[in-house]
UniProtKB/TrEMBL annotation:
Keyword Signal on entry: yes
Main location: other
Pfam families recorded: Beta-barrel_RND, BSH_RND, HH_MFP_RND, RND-MFP_C
Domain Multidrug resistance protein MdtA-like C-terminal permuted SH3: 309-371
Protein name, per record: MexX family efflux pump subunit
Protein species of origin: Thalassobaculum fulvum
NCBIfam families with a match to the protein in the record: RND_mfp (TIGR01730)
Gene name for this UniProt entry: acrA
Signal recorded as keyword: yes
GO cellular component: plasma membrane
InterPro entries hit by this protein: MdtA-like_b-barrel, MdtA-like_BSH, MdtA-like_C, MdtA-like_HH, RND_pump_MFP
UniProt keyword terms in alphabetical order: Coiled coil, Signal
Upper taxonomic lineage: Bacteria, Pseudomonadati, Pseudomonadota, Alphaproteobacteria, Rhodospirillales
Length: 396
């Protein structure tokens, strides 16, 4: 029995030895096996380029009519007719109201009669002055009588001149009985109706005519924005606007819908509003279809200069580190990626304006960011994402 136990013990030891040797060989074989290399990850890449970028500022503003005419009567009387349709278009010189002309026709007739009377008096006094002049040479009349005759003649001529002026005034007042529009534009509601009594130069306007094409857009720019622009101009980061007036694009809603007609900046005020620390700007915008109405709140994009060699990158290519620093994945010469810190200035359309950290020719990852990490080897293909700078530029 002891011999049988010894044989079993020897068999177990032999099996354990063989198993250990097999494991050791397998481990050595694994250690010496070649390590398999991961294939490159395909990502969308864009190459950084420098471009000429207009420096724009987006400002709030309100529209106002290009011209406004408050229609008031210049003579007293009863309104007999209203000659326009409320809310319609009127032309310059178009009759709007007709005031009862009869009293003014009578005054004109009276003035003409006074002129005839004065002219008759001029004829009589002139003849008398001529006769006295002839008689004066023969001493048939005194010098005093002749001087009185000449004075009477001049008085009659002055009366005739006054009568002519009275006729002209009466004609003007008669013309004023037809109230006309001084400008072309759209007329609003009428404040009076037929039969109303009006007085000359009254405080209440009969109606208001507004010229809407073109139309003004009054804007407010903060003093800080204006100061930053001046610093950029002084430092050479921004060039002044090209010859001519800066272009203005009106944005109709919060979505940034652009009004199709381009305007231009007329002037920038030199006075700062004490309450708001803003400077007033005024732009004029074509309005052929009357889409812009006075009093509308709009935003306007004003071109204030040009930045040469600007670098724009797509917004989706930029991510933030734990400390909030802006970074991009930079593709190296060996086609491996690494995070790279940049400085962004402002959002321009669907991109970021980069002020430091990138140079023309650098390649950055735009698509496939979730598939990479530092040191990943990539297969770069051109990205389909393009920076469109006109979509929604930020403020300066």
């Amino acid at each position: 029995m002891s011999r049988l136990r010894m044989l079993r013990r020897a068999a177990v030891v032999a099996l354990l030895t063989v198993g250990a040797a097999a494991c050791e060989q397998q481990g050595q074989g694994t250690a010496h096996a070649p390590k398999q290399e991961q294939p490159p990850v395909e990502v969308g890449v864009t190459t950084v380029e420098a471009r000429r970028l207009p420096v724009t500022v987006e400002l709030p503003g309100r529209t106002s009519a290009f011209r406004v005419a408050e229609i008031r009567p210049q003579v007293d009387g009863i309104v007999r007719e209203r000659l326009f349709r409320e809310g319609g278009e009127v032309a310059a010189g178009q009759p709007l109201y007709r005031i009862d002309p009869k009293p003014y026709e009578a005054r004109l007739a009276s003035a003409r009669a006074e002129l005839q009377k004065a002219q008759a008096n001029v004829a009589a006094t002139s003849a008398k002055a001529r006769r006295y002049k002839e008689l004066l040479t023969s001493n048939a009349v005194s010098r005093q009588n002749y001087d009185d005759a000449v004075a009477a003649q001049k008085q009659a001529e002055a009366d005739a001149a006054a009568a002519r002026a009275a006729i002209e005034a009466a004609e003007i007042n008669l013309d004023y009985t037809t109230v006309v529009s001084p400008i072309a534009g759209r007329i609003g509601k009428s404040a009076i109706s037929e039969g109303a009594l009006v007085t000359a130069n009254q405080a209440t306007a009969l109606a208001v005519v507004q010229q809407l094409d073109p139309i003004y857009v009054d804007l407010s720019q903060s003093l800080a924005q204006l100061a930053q622009l001046r610093r950029d101009l002084a430092a050479g980061r921004v060039e002044g606007h090209d010859a001519g007036r800066p272009a203005v694009t009106v944005l109709l809603d919060t979505a940034g819908t652009a009004y199709p007609e381009k305007g231009e900046l007329l002037f920038s005020d030199v006075t700062v509003e004490a309450d708001t620390s803003t400077v007033q700007l005024r732009a004029v915008v074509p309005n052929p279809r009357a889409e812009l109405l006075p009093g509308m709140f709009v935003r306007a994009r004003v071109e204030q200069g040009v930045r040469e060699n600007a670098i724009l990158v797509p917004q989706q290519a930029v991510f933030r580190s734990a400390d909030g620093e802006a970074r991009v994945w930079l593709v190296g010469a060996d086609d491996t990626v690494s995070p790279h810190a940049i400085q962004t200035d402002k959002a321009v359309g669907n991109g970021w304006l980069v002020s430091a950290g990138l140079k023309p020719g650098d390649r950055i990852v735009v698509e496939g960011l979730q598939k990479i990490r530092p040191g990943t080897r990539v297969s770069a293909v051109p990205s389909k994402v393009q920076v469109v700078a006109e979509l929604a530029p930020g403020t300066r």
